[in-house]
Automatic annotation (TrEMBL):
GO terms for molecular function: hydrolase activity. This is Glycosyl hydrolase, BNR repeat-containing protein. Residues 21-147, 180-280 form the Sortilin N-terminal domain. The keyword Signal does not apply. Keywords: Hydrolase, Repeat. It comes from mine drainage metagenome. Residues 418-450 are annotated as: Disordered. One of its GO terms (biological process) is xyloglucan metabolic process. SUPFAM superfamilies: Sialidases. CDD domains: Sialidase_non-viral (cd15482). The keyword RNA-binding does not apply.
């Protein structure tokens, strides 16, 4: 029996909502919906190992508005009916949920006060905290105020129980005094064992922790640049170099802990030697394309930028009757860009990167050239600090009426008639230019300004 929760709980501005919980009783051959569709985001599912009809689901709810479909839910009939068993308030959801495998009535739930707007993220607040139940969710106690846990405002929290010794509980905590915390008495007291910022950067997007089920001193933390591992109870961590960045989740085989299954923004990858080597991630259909462009060749070529995998182009047909992987080639420039092939020379493409990056790429020579109308790169800046508000994905295209005219959108429309060597602004600010939507994003614990919250901007141009 398998349960799957849908919807993204790493709440980026382009979060995709789900349809609740699905269940398979034939090892994944067929599936059916079993409720919680209106929660939008299922962040974790745990199943009673002694009774598969007893299942718990954690939900962040509707992250763009306050709502009651947040918290921890329980079903005792295999998903036919659900009961909400932990709820803080309409602005706080459940981001993580784990079970003591030896005592399935013991649960730990991480609650996270967070919401999204197109222009900002609120990450943390008085609703955030870590809770424990010892009776299958009938009663809960907040344990994030216990001795040793960080004081003040809390943000996102990840939690894990060591199956080999359930008294050992790990938490990775977003807070001013955050880090990795360990409890040796099932959450009654805590000790901060590691404060390394590398383990908790961009907390809203990561902050997960996984204890080895066979060794209470081995613990994994997936992050942007690596899967980190500690073998001394969290005191020190070392990098396991996975083949892709933006690492989010890891499964450790309880019968062979060297067998790891790791999930990242490129897909899934497997290690059979404890993370020394990994399988590739280009053997699965996980590409997520932001936009598609076509050119005037025959057969025409297709251009697209895919999340965390760069930008590529390839033919729509070949004499061989198939399109091999080797026929796809890189173009300008980054993961979220519109791509503009030059009408008279499609081997030259134009594409954007983060913030103000804009580049022209010549496929014949392999040369990139920076052509931004404002080449000052202000990484981490708020919208009100930018001369041009180039959104995470902003229009770049050639004019259909004047094929040599390249158009670019920020809050203004800009044009270039010389391949980006010079630019002219041809419109006023076409947005509402509301100062309230241009403030720093994130907080109250940490700011997060990666370019995804640049607003207001022009999102479409034709």
């Amino acid at each position: 029996m398998i349960y799957v929760g849908t919807g993204e709980s790493d709440i980026r501005g382009d979060v995709i909502t789900g349809d609740g919980v699905f269940k398979s009783t034939d090892a994944g051959k067929t599936w059916r919906a079993v409720g919680l569709a209106d929660t939008h985001t299922i962040s974790a599912i745990v199943v009673d190992p002694k009774n598969p009809d007893v299942v718990y689901a954690a939900s962040m709810g509707h992250v763009f508005k306050p709502n009651a479909e947040r918290g921890v839910f329980k079903s005792v009939d295999g998903g036919k009916t659900w009961k909400k068993i932990l709820y803080v308030d309409a602005g706080t959801g459940a981001i993580d949920l784990v079970m003591d495998p030896k005592h399935p009535d013991v649960l730990y739930a991480a609650m996270w006060q967070a919401y999204r707007r197109p222009w900002t993220l609120q990450d943390g607040g008085p609703g955030s905290g870590l809770y424990k139940s010892s009776d299958g969710g009938a009663h809960w106690t907040e344990i994030s105020r216990n001795t040793g846990f960080p004081h003040g405002v809390l943000g996102r929290i990840g939690v894990s129980v060591a199956a080999s010794d359930p008294n050992v509980v790990y938490a990775i905590v977003q807070a001013k005094g955050g880090g990795v915390f360990r409890s040796s008495d099932a959450g009654a007291t805590w000790t901060r064992v590691n404060s390394n910022w590398s383990l908790r950067q961009r907390a809203f997007y990561y902050m997960s922790i996984f204890a080895d089920p066979t060794d209470a001193n081995t613990v994994y933390v997936p992050e942007v640049d690596a899967l980190w591992v500690s073998r001394d109870g969290g005191k020190t961590f070392a990098k396991l170099h996975t083949p892709h960045g933006d690492n989010h989740i890891v499964w450790i085989n309880p019968h062979d802990p060297k067998l790891l299954l790791e999930g990242n923004d490129g897909g899934a990858t497997v290690s059979t030697d404890g993370g020394v080597t990994w399988s590739g991630d280009h053997n699965q259909p996980t590409g997520q394309f932001y936009h598609v462009a076509l050119d005037d060749q025959f057969p025409f070529h297709i251009y697209g930028a895919q999340q965390d995998e760069g930008s590529f182009e390839g033919p729509s047909a070949t004499p061989a009757g198939m399109i091999p992987l080797g026929d796809w080639r890189p173009v300008a420039y980054n993961e979220a860009t519109f791509i503009a092939p030059q009408p008279d020379r499609p081997s030259i493409t134009y594409g954007a990167g983060y913030f103000s990056i804009l580049r022209r790429y010549d496929q014949r020579t392999g040369q990139f050239r920076e052509i931004s109308p404002w080449p000052e790169y202000q990484e981490g800046a708020a919208s009100n600090q930018l001369k041009y508000r180039f959104g995470w994905t902003h229009p770049i295209l050639f004019s259909a009426a004047r094929p040599g005219e390249l158009l670019l959108a920020s809050q203004y429309v800009l044009k270039s008639s010389d391949g980006g060597e010079s630019w002219t602004r041809i419109s006023p600010d076409l947005t509402r230019d509301d100062p309230a939507t241009q403030l720093p994003s994130g907080g109250p614990v940490d700011l997060d300004q990666s370019g995804a919250e640049i607003f207001p901007d022009i999102s479409a141009l034709a």
